[in-house]
């Protein structure tokens, strides 16, 4: 079966038969949440996960540096000929999505990560957005609140050190950062937006730290659905494999990834 996916793909790869192969980019293991959601929806999809342990964390870097590192990870992943490219990182989406789309689209769909503010605010309750210190208070996040916050009362809660603790699978540091963010979450909060992909790996611990029946809203499910919608119609199944890249080098998932159910799910059919 021959699929023509635009001039960029024909120029780079030529006309060829393709399988379901999806690449995901992040600085570290935050991409596990979206990758696992895609794996659950399409167990046959071949996944390429491209992280940047040499350059992480991306958050403290300048916007230009973040964009360059995200582009490097994406270019390494594109060598494996994916059918879609997912920017599974809120920070990289803010600073690199436009450049990634300019380089790869229309031949290769590029899907970004947007905090789930709209569904969280839909009921008009009290919403807290947990995010990294750099994202909290940013023009990007404030714009999303203005656009999608509706009648909800939306509060921003910075979570310093939480993404880094999740990356290290450091249980004590995770507990301390979650407890700090929970203490600064306004009383009466009805919905919490997990505004960093790393946080979805510990959603059970976040839920346990919040009083009452607080609803958590992540992005992984929406990312998976949007990615699958962007695939070319009739794309044949893949083999359900996993390719791991670390700063462009073939690798395996780090031991820390296996501390989370999403990492264990992905390693079921891993290869390099």
UniProtKB/TrEMBL annotation:
Alphabetical list of InterPro entries matching this protein: Asp/Glu/hydantoin_racemase, Asp/Glu_race, Asp/Glu_racemase_AS_1
The entry's keywords: Isomerase
Transmembrane region(s): none
Protein name: Aspartate/glutamate racemase family protein
UniProt cross-references to Pfam families, sorted A to Z: Asp_Glu_race (PF01177)
Source organism, top-level taxon: Bacteria
């Amino acid at each position: 079966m021959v699929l023509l996916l635009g001039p960029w793909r024909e120029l780079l790869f030529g006309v060829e038969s393709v399988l379901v192969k999806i690449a995901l980019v992040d600085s570290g293991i935050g991409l596990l949440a979206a990758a696992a959601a895609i794996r659950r929806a399409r167990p046959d999809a071949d996944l390429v996960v491209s992280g940047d342990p040499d350059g992480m964390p991306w958050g403290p870097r300048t916007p230009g540096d973040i964009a360059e590192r995200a582009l490097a990870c994406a270019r390494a992943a594109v060598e494996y000929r994916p059918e879609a490219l997912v920017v599974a990182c809120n920070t990289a989406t803010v600073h690199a999505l436009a450049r990634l789309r300019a380089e790869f689209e229309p031949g290769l769909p590029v899907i970004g990560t947007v905090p789930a503010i709209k569904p969280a605010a839909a009921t008009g309750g009290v919403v807290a957005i947990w995010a990294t210190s750099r994202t909290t208070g940013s023009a990007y996040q404030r714009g999303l609140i203005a656009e999608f916050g509706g009648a909800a009362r939306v509060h921003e809660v910075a979570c310093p050190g939480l993404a880094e603790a999740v990356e290290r699978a450091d249980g004590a540091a995770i507990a301390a950062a979650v407890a700090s963010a929970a203490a600064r979450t306004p009383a009466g909060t009805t919905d919490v937006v997990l505004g960093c992909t790393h946080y979805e790996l510990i959603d059970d611990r976040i839920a346990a730290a919040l009083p009452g029946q607080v609803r958590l809203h992540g992005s992984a499910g929406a990312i998976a659905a949007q990615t699958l919608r962007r695939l070319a119609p009739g794309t044949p199944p893949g083999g359900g494999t996993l390719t791991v890249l670390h700063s462009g080098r073939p690798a395996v998932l780090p031991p820390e990834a296996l501390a989370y159910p999403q990492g264990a799910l992905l390693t079921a059919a891993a290869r390099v």
